[in-house]
Amino acid sequence: MKKNHLHLDTQLTHLGRPVKSDGPGVVNTPVYHASTITFPSITAQEAARRLRFDGMSYGRNGTPTTFALEEAIAGIEGGYRGIVFPSGLAAIAAALLACLRTGDHVLVPDSVYGSARKFCTNILPRYGVEVTYYDPLIGAGVAALLCKNTRVVYVEAPGSLTFEMQDIPAIAAVAHDHDALVLMDNTWATPYFFRSFDHGVDISIHAATKYIVGHSDAMLGLVVTIQEQYLKVREMTAGLGYTAGPDDVYLALRGLRTLGVRLARHQHNALVVANWLRARPEVAEVLYPALPGARGHDIWKRDFLGASGLFGVILKPHSNAAVEAMVDGLDLFSIGASWGGFESLVSFPDPGPLRTATRWPATGPLLRFHIGLEEPADLISDLKRGFARLKQTAAATA
User: Fold this and answer.
1) Taken in order 29, 31, 214, 207, is the CA torsion positive or negative?
2) 216 in the Ramachandran plot: left (φ > 0), alpha (ψ -120 to 50) or beta?
3) Partners of residue 153 on adjacent β-strands
4) pLDDT for 36-77, tens place per residue?
5) How far apart, in whole angstroms, are the C-alpha atoms of residue 254 and residue 234?
6) CA–centroid distance for 329 within its chain
7) d(Cα 81, Cα 219) in Å, to the nearest integer?
8) Domains of the chain with CATH codes
9) DSSP per-residue string spanning 72-141
10) Nearest CA to 244 among 52, 69, 41, 385?
11) Cα-atom radius of gyration of the chain, to the nearest Å?
12) What is the rounded distance in angstroms from the CA atom of residue 258 to the CA atom of residue 9?
């Protein structure tokens, strides 16, 4: 039953669940562990093979658990159909490979997720695909970089390390004028806070490992497409042999039910902490598009329905030793590169070496915070103690 007319929170609760006619009244779609699928006749088996993406033919092509998540994510994002992958990077790789072939050209923002960049730099050129990195803030100016063989413009808003907010509608309009597809990494906002297909995106990609699973205990990727792009991405997925374990798929379905309430809390907590950080004398800038006055806020306010809990902080110049003293002693912030779970995280990346089309302008260290579901006053107290250690170490080494 189509439920797209319902409020998004209602869809999160009901999409991808068993219908009443399926039998026993279980609330959640069961976990199907299956490789071999048997049939009552050769005719039935042949029919299933012909319709391998619309029913059960072999475990690698999906089970009712997989199909439930694919239905739910497509309905929530407003796309045609969804596809499940064993990781976010697998979803990125399959989507790009489905849309590119030898002799094609792809445009990728200079702020792109690091593992996606490695794939584009190290793998795509092996197959004769030309990759150009572009200034993520160029907007409609991306037209100057489009070539006759440009088939894909890849976007990510905001950048998951340096938080540039791309003008997706402007980029999509230009790309479509040149018959190029727009592929977007929509992990930061999720379909709950960014309606990708309403803004010109053709294929939306998610590291479901993060906010959709929401509990830091499963690896998963998702792709949602418009109708015209579905089969080629699905065929590429099958050709590469990608499949996700049913237990991880189940965890994503379970996480999906609370996505709205968790994101609301992440956003609330992040705004409290980001506002506090902005006032600290050690902080040069907070990179959080949802924060009034921050870089990209106008685009975020125009196009997005909310924000997640991930943002960056540029400190005023300090030594690595001082920053490490601050971070290493934090009690409530674990040090980790991922994000999207219930817990708060911090990392100390260096974005400069990752760039080729633009220069990272900050002179001070960058910290990336994921604000979890803890009480923000407790997080702030932890950070206060961290800044005290930073100050003490800086003074001792001056």
Assistant:
1) negative
2) left
3) 107, 182
4) 888 999 998 898 888 778 888 888 888 999 999 999 999 999
5) 24
6) 29
7) 20
8) 8-108+181-257 (3.40.640.10), 259-397 (3.90.1150.10)
9) HHHHHHT-SEEEEESSHHHHHHHHHHHH--TT-EEEEETT--HHHHHHHHHTGGGGT-EEEEE-TT-GGG
10) 69
11) 22
12) 9
pLDDT tens, residue by residue, 133-182: 999 999 999 999 999 999 999 999 999 899 999 999 999 999 999 999 99
- Retrieve residue 300's tokens: 């975020």
CB 390 within 8 A of CB 318: yes
Q: How far apart are CA 329 and CA 348, in angstroms?
A: 14
Q: How confident is the model at residue 4 (pLDDT cuts 50, 70, 90)?
A: low
Helix (H) or strand (E) holding 223: strand 221-225
Residue type, 331: D
Catalytic residue numbers read: 60, 113, 185, 210
Q: Which residues pair with 132 in a beta bridge?
A: 107
Site of tokens 């009712």: 64
Eight-state DSSP code of residue 30: P
Token output for 342: 């219930």
Judged on CB neighbours under 10 Å (0-12, 13-18, 19+), 368 is: buried
DSSP state letter for 19 = P
Q: What 8-state DSSP symbol labels residue 226?
A: -
Helices and strands, counts by H and E, the chain: 13, 12
For residue 22, what is the DSSP state? G
User: What distance lies between CA 50 and its chain's CA centroid?
Assistant: 33
Hey, CA dihedral for 174, 180, 185, 189, is it positive or negative?
positive
